[in-house]
Design a protein that fits this description.
binds 1,4-dihydronicotinamide adenine dinucleotide; NAD; 7-stranded mixed sheet; binds 2-oxoglutaric acid; about 450 residues; alpha/beta; 17 helices; Aminoacid_DH-like_N_sf; 12 strands
Length: about 450
């Protein structure tokens, strides 16, 4: 990197760190973006003068609140609730809600920051936001989850709305939680609107929203593979996670002819050398979505599989890796192991799953590597399609939604290629996604003045 560009990055980050002390995930997300954008911003002085990136890195609003609820023993429990309304330059704030014990402001700010660029890439009119709570749904009864969701929404409902801020699911928030939150929103506001996405099909949801993030990640990977005359057919795929994104990435990769050999959760991973086919995946979906069990039970049911306690799946030999669990789940050493084992494509289904050292290894070795903000954008894009269907008061068929999702993913890929191709022809999808995502938001902010 040239000296004056490095200085811009260093000064920018020094300011971010001073203004947001201790928020390491947020610093990490901003650093990656500033590194991509610095040359572009230095060539466009108006962006510097109008402090566009500085403003994008400061949330427009953060709401923090108490979430008191009663557990099944009748005792009061208290959690923290948050909504980070990051940027509304191109549309209402939009982004998921995460329930996980690790949730804090740093994590939600990094997610809301990433969401701003991701939503812009979808080409749909959605700003960036993210919310959540340090509530841990593991081991809680359905009634406890319902009481928690109702209390969370009792406060959140004042801050959201179909034209203001439209939350959805994320880690720990799936169809069950969206149902409880939507029910409480409707009850308190006395209105049936599209304020949440990820709703059930019979009450305003879009076909394919549950599938969209995993499917979209595979559609994006298909586009990357095609640039080298490759496809999923006959490839071995390692997937981490076993939740929503991992399940549907596994389903689509298998449908496209690949063999998926791993899934994981926070306790460990399973390796199935025969591949996780449709029947085995149906078992995983029941295990995780209904019985809320652990992935190790897979290896008890299918003796051909092995369970590795406390480990991540990146030492397994594969052609394609798809991290679909959580942030910073793939480090520099694991990236080197993947590369040494012949992995040539990494498509992120999770948000920021690769550490900066892992990303550097992928780029230095010229892998096909897509950051989550590009390859997992199919989820929020389909949420955008749900918002459109809600506004029009009609619903599209699964085929129509799938076709739109597919074409959005192709367009995001094309935008990354346009802005990320270097002089040697290698596509740096990190730069491509950051620059393409930034431009639309930046132009809107320039037009809207100092707000
Ligand atoms: N649900 C969606 O539509 C979208 C989700 N994402 C991202 O995809 C990732 C997964 O989200 P979902 O599948 O929706 O959540 P989920 O709650 O359905 O599944 C999360 C998975 O990650 C695993 N996990 C959580 N913490 C872990 C840890 N510390 N170590 C190892 N595994 C861990 C869980 O065991 C579970 O398998 C997250 O990064 C999320 O932000 C991104 C775009 C959209
Ligand atoms: O569907 C949405 O609104 C949000 C999805 C999400 O949280 C994400 O893209 O990370």
């Amino acid at each position: 990197m040239e000296k004056h560009v490095q200085k811009y990055v260093d000064d920018f980050m020094a300011d971010i760190i001073a203004r947001n002390p201790g928020e390491k995930e947020f610093h990490q997300a901003v650093h990656e973006v500033v590194e991509s954008l610095a040359p572009y911003i230095l060539e466009n002085p108006v962006l510097q003068k109008m402090k566009v990136l500085e403003r994008i890195a400061e949330p427009e609003r953060i709401v923090m609140f108490r979430v008191p609820w009663l557990n099944d023993k009748g005792e009061i429990e208290i959690n923290k609730g948050y909504r980070v309304e990051m940027n509304s330059a191109i549309g209402p704030y939009k982004g998921g809600i995460r329930f996980h014990s690790s949730v804090n402001l740093s994590i939600l700010k990094f997610l809301a920051f990433e969401q701003t660029f991701k939503n812009s890439l979808t080409t749909l009119p959605m700003g960036g936001g993210k919310g959540g709570s340090d509530f841990n749904p593991k081991g809680k009864s359905d009634n406890e989850v319902m009481r928690f969701c109702q209390s969370f929404m009792t406060e959140l409902q004042r801050h959201i709305g179909a034209n203001t801020d439209v939350p959805a699911g994320d880690i720990g928030v799936g169809g069950r939680e969206i149902g409880f939150m939507f029910g409480q929103y409707k009850r308190l506001r006395n209105e049936f609107t599209g304020t949440l996405t990820g709703k059930g099909l019979g009450w305003g949801g879009s076909p394919l929203r549950p599938e969209a993030t995993g499917y979209g990640t595979c559609y994006f990977a298909q586009e990357m593979l095609a640039t080298r005359g490759e496809s999923f057919k006959g490839k071995t795929v390692a997937i981490s996670g076993s939740g929503n994104v991992a399940q549907y990435a596994c389903e689509k990769a298998t449908q496209l002819g690949a063999k998926v050999v791993t899934l994981s959760d926070s306790s460990g991973y399973i390796y199935d050398p025969k591949g996780i086919d449709a029947d085995k995946l149906a078992y995983v979906m029941e295990l995780k979505n209904i019985f809320r069990g652990r992935i190790k039970e897979y290896a008890e049911k299918y003796p051909e599989a092995t369970y590795y306690e406390g480990q991540r799946p990146w030492s397994v030999k594969c052609d394609i890796a798809m991290p679909c669990a959580t942030q910073n789940e793939l480090n520099g050493d694991e990236a080197q192991t993947l590369i040494a084992n012949g992995c040539f494509c990494v498509a992120e289904g999770a948000n920021m799953p690769s550490t900066p050292e892992a990303i550097k290894a992928f780029l230095d070795n010229k892998l096909l590597y897509s950051p989550g903000k590009a390859s997992n954008a199919g989820g929020v894009a389909t949420s955008g399609l749900e918002m459109t269907q809600n506004s029009m008061r009609l619903s599209w068929s699964p085929q129509e939604v799938d076709q739109k999702l597919h074409s959005i993913m192709k367009d995001i890929h094309a935008a990354c290629v346009k802005y990320g191709t270097g002089p040697d022809g290698y596509v740096n999808y990190v730069n491509g996604a950051n620059i393409a995502g930034f431009m639309k938001v930046a132009n809107a902010m320039l037009a809207q003045g100092c707000v």
